[in-house]
Amino acid sequence: MAETEEKSPGPPGGNGWRREYWRKNLRLMVTLLVIWFAVSFGCGILFVEQLNQITLGGFPLGFWFAQQGSIYVFVLLILVYCLRMDRLDKEFGVEERDEEPASGPAAASDTSAAEGDAKEGGES
Amino acid sequence: MSEIQLWTLLSIVVTFGLYIGIAWRSRVRETQGFYVAGHGIPTIANGAAIGADWMSAASFISMAGLIAFMGYDATIYLMGWTGGYVLLALLIAPYLRKWGKFTVPEFVGDRYSELVRGIAAVAAIIVSFTYVVGQMNGGGIVFSRFLQIDIQYGVLIASVVIFIYAVLGGMKSITWTQVAQYTVLIIAYLIPAVAVAQVITGIPVPQVSFGQILGELSAISEQLGVGHYTDPFTTRPMIDIFLVTMALMIGTSGLPHVIIRFYTTKTVRGSRYSAFWALLFIALLYTTAPAVGAFTQLNLLNGVQGTATDALPSWVANWSEAELVEVNPNADVINSVSNSEDSGADLIVSSDILVLASPEIAGLPAPVVGLVAAGGMAAALSTAAGLLLVISSSVSHDFYFRRFRRNASDSERLLVGRIAMAGAIVVAAVVGVNPPAFVAQVVAFAFGMAAASFFPAIVLGIFWKRCNAVGAAAGMVAGLALTITYMIYTLEVFGTDANEHILGVSPEGIGTIGAVVNFAVTIVVSKMTAPPSEEISEMVENIRYPAAERRAPAGASDD
User: Fold this and answer.
1) Where are the transmembrane segments (chain B) (predicted)?
2) What is the CATH number of the domain that holds B33?
3) Interface ipTM
């Protein structure tokens, strides 16, 4: 499809890589949003009565999803998004270089975590 | 002065000294610093600041109380106020950071038109103001109870403190103060929660251990007429739970004071990780809150059930003075408990006191009670400061600078911003003394309005190049008009009558429908009118990629 265009990265402006990057970004986003909806609105609200038939550690399962589980899933979804986007940015050469290296220990540990993930991803 | 009062005063004075000290050290003199902290806040600190900015008096003071009385149905707050961060992280934060200026109206102004900017600025002011009133009231509750003064004076003290550090410092000092406030509020929340969990179940992890008391709590709740604790849809129909949760999520991701926090990071990548840290910090409190609600409710109900009215525990008398607990004068023995004034129950407990009273109810020592009060203040103040900043930037930047004086100097704009902030504090304090509804509800309205106005305009502006100014303006007006009309129709606001809910949709949930209407109107009107210009398409194209220029891709080999 966009094979020929991609050979010429050239100046910005509707090149194939842009469409490809954006398509991958959207695909990741939609996947994560589907999970977001399924866990919160699905397990926590729409099917709460059915799930409440099951009890774990004193918690009716639907109730647990509504008041605990969905929140844990939200945190994980954003983490996955950050790590995946790091990888995508790198793949397409649009990652940001830290102009000022003084972005603190936070950024440093982020980077190492992201790289770890990228390596794992590369093997698969 | 009682021991509890002494400790409360001590905790509040010490923590306030800390905040004002930090504010003073990081005060700023130029607009970049005042509004976006010079884009230089490290990711984790920014996450903690977002957490404090976000977790308001409603989260800290009201939420566990609401959960205690609503049981499952309080899910709307738990999922609604966290799930929005997923939308924010995936749909909004990185793109607005890439575009990166000062305010949210500024983005829609550049993307669409000056008219849309104006509408957005008005909406930002309404939303932030509605929200700030709740914070003032929350701060007032804390002071009035612990210092034994009238709520007016409580609100007055809160306003003075907010005034000092928000007006002085701007975004940079607010950010660092908020990091300190997050620390205070989370410690204040977790210590009593862990202690109570340990005492009742022997497991010091409240998130895990409150499962053990749910059966007992459901049984005793039903006896006292509060409703089966874990059963869904006892207070609201499913459709309403769905709509309210969605409205709070969309509202969260459209709230201007949260969005501008993503402008303060160094990079686009930093804004993504800020969202992660923010939600992680928030989740720490939000997964604890249902446990606090459950434990406190069980303690409370066990403590009063079947007790003669003249032999009630001491916290009842303490809070009666602040008029937040009421014993029915006709009752001899407590056989029913409610959080609603009109229920006619033997004991009426305001949802707003449960967290503040939980250490007392559980019999924890006085320093812990004082710490919780300081935490409640931290939550109210940090959010109020963030909101005031939005009001100030909307007035000074989007109206004054953009509309009236394009050549206003930096110091002149700062002065206008500070005056706007001061004005907002005064009005908010006056309204905060006597708010139109209880704290969490007021906040829910702010969310509905944010959901129905900004969110669709921002998301379509990023993801749909064809979206144009006329469409966005029409959509925002339609969404906001529907939402506000329905709220006024169903609620007593400024003397209007409260009408029946249509199809079970509550005024808190209407924002979802307002957002859907906004989306639909924007799309239809955009399609019917001319597409936006080339430059705008190029601007939208550019915010989709983090780096300014493309480098040789790392994974070039697989192409």
Assistant:
1) 6-24, 44-70, 76-95, 115-134, 146-168, 180-200, 241-263, 275-295, 368-393, 414-432, 438-463, 470-489, 509-530
2) 1.20.1730.10
3) 0.87
